[in-house]
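Posting this for the archive.
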Amino acid sequence: MAKINVLDSSVFNLISAGEVVERPASVVKELVENSIDAGATKISVEIVDGGISSIVIVDNGCGIDKENMRLAFLPHATSKLAKAEDLDNIATLGFRGEALASVSAVAQVTMTSKTVDDEIGNFIKLSAGKVVEEGKRAIAQSTSITVENLFFNTPVRKKFLKKPKQEEANVTAIMIQLALANPDIKFKYTVDNKLVFQTNGGLEEAVYAVYNNEIANGLLPFDVTYDNYRVYGYTGNASIAKHNRNYQTVIINGRIISNQTISTAVSQAYGNRLMTRTFPVFVINIVMPFDDVDVNVHPTKTDVRFADNHKVFSSVYKAIITTLTSQEQNLILGSNSSAEKKEQDVIQINSDINSTKPQEKIDGIDLLFADKEEKKDTKYQDLIEKQKKVVEELKYSKDLPKAQPKVRDSMSATHSNSVGNIPKPDITTSSSLLELVDEQLESEFKVIGQVFNTYLIVECQGLVYFIDQHACHERIIYDKLLDEVNSKNVSVQYMLVPFILDCNNTQYEYLCAIQQNLKDLGFDIEEFGGLSFKVNSVPHLLNDINLAVFFDELFTERQSALGLKNADLIRDRLAQKACKSAIKAGAQLDNKQIRALIDSMKNGIPLQCPHGRPAVLSYTRRDFDKLFKRII
C-alpha cells in the first residue's frame, strides 16, 4: 500500500488557490466582494497589464485591526461564519475564508488598513503565503490591498494566462457585473492609469456608466414580485442582441452567479424574438429568502442551488415575457401625426397587438355614404359629401353603366397566404368618385414600388419605409396561428395510423404531467401500455409535423416546459409553418398588390418576423439629405 502523506500548508494552499484563483479576474472578484462585505460605499479598482503585474483595491469599509490582520490570511479564516447552522442563512458574499489565503499563496500581497478605533493604520506584506513584513502606516480609515506578480511562484499556472489585453477584458467583465449587482456602491475602475468607468449610485446610472448609450437606451426596465420573490432589473430589446453572453448579468441576493435554470427561463421568454445565434442583454436581480438558495455548491461560488427550481424559473420567465410583450410594436400607416414630429411620434404603436381593434377603413360605398351622425369626427366627411354629388349625377345620367363602379378592393383586402391570391383591384370603369377615393388613399400613404423583388417601398407623412415582404407576411401568419392556439380554437387533424411514442421513466412522468396541455393544443394523446403513448391526432395547423422530432425536443426542454403556456410548447413549429406559407423573397408584386398586402395588416405592419429579423426600416427626408450631402 502506498504511504499516506499529510500535505504541508504550502502545498494545500496552492491546491486551494487553483480552485479559487484562476486568473486576475478571480482575484478582483474575491477581493471586491470582501470590500462589499466590509460595508464599503466606495470601491476603487486599478489594474496594470491585465492584472498580471498589479491589482490595487481600495475601499472605505470598516477596516481590519492589527490583531486580526494575520488571521485573515490563514486558510478557512472568516468573520462571517461561526457555526454550522450559519450555512443555512448565508447573507454575505465571502464566507469560506479562502480568498486571502489563496491569493497570497500565489502572489505578493500588501494589505494596509485602519479601523475607526485605530489611531494609526497597520500593514502586512506576504509573499507566497508567508509574512515578510508588517508594521504601522499612516492612512485614513480604509483598507487597501495590492496584489503583484500573480503566479510568480507557479510558472506553469502563469503560462496558461492569456495576453494582458484578454485578461483585462475578463477583469472588465467582472467589474461591470459587480457594479450592476451593487448599484448603491460607487465604483471607480482604472486600467493602466486610464479611467474606464465610474458609477455614482443607482441601477440606471450604473447601466449608463458601464454600457454605451446604444445598449443602455435599448434596455427595458421591470420590477415584479411573485410571492416572496422580487425580480427586477433590465432586459434588452432585439436590436441590441449580442453574439455572446458577455452582456448578461444575474444577481441572487447581491451575488453574481451563472445558473442554467435562469438562463433557460430567459431564453424561453425571448423565444423567436432574436435571430439565430444571438443572445439578449439583461441585468436580472432576484431577491429571495436566504434559506431558499444554497450558495455553497461551487468552489468559486459562481453557481447556486434553489430549493424550488420551478418557482425561480416561473418568476424569471413571467417577468421577462411580460416586459417583452408590453413593448411589442406594430407600425400603422396613415396616423394623424405630422412629419415635423419626432420619428418615434410619427409611428403609432400598439402595445398589445392581440387585443387592438382593427384600424377603421372605408369599406365600400355603403360605408362611405353612412349617415353623418354615425360617422362623427371622421376625416372622410368632406370626401363623402363630394362623392354624394358625383353619385347623384351618375344616377340620372343616360350613360350610367350597368354595373356600378367598384371601390378599390385594396381598401378591404383580406389576408392571403400566397402572393398569387393577393386581390388585384377590380376597376370596371373610371369615374371622378374613384379618383377622389384614390386621392384620399394617396394622402395616407403612397406606394413607391418594390426593389429586388423582396423589399417594398412606401412613403407616409415624411417617412419612407422599406418593408421586407417575406418577414412581414410571415409575422402576420404567425400571429394568426398563435391567436388560434391561445384561444384554444385549434382544429384537429386525425391520423390514419396513430403514432406510438416509447418513453423512459422520466419522459413518461413528464408526458403525464403535460398531457392536458398537449390535448388543448390538438394532440390527442393517450397511454398505450407500459411506458408508451399513442398519438391519435395533431393540430391541423401542424399537419406536417415530425412527431419524433417534436417530442425529442420537448423532452430536452422538460426542465422548464411545465411552466410554459400551451402556445409556447409549439411556438417554433408555428414559426416554421408561417415561414412556409408567407410570400417569398423574390416574388414580384405590383403597386396594387403591395397596397392590398399593406391594407390587409389590420393591426399594423409588424416590426419583426417570428425569428427576430427586422421587417421594417424607416428613413426621414433628413436622412436622405445627409446621404446626398444636402446637409453636412
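Confidence is low (pLDDT under 50) at residues 80-91, 336-380, 393-443. The longest helix spans residues 164-181.
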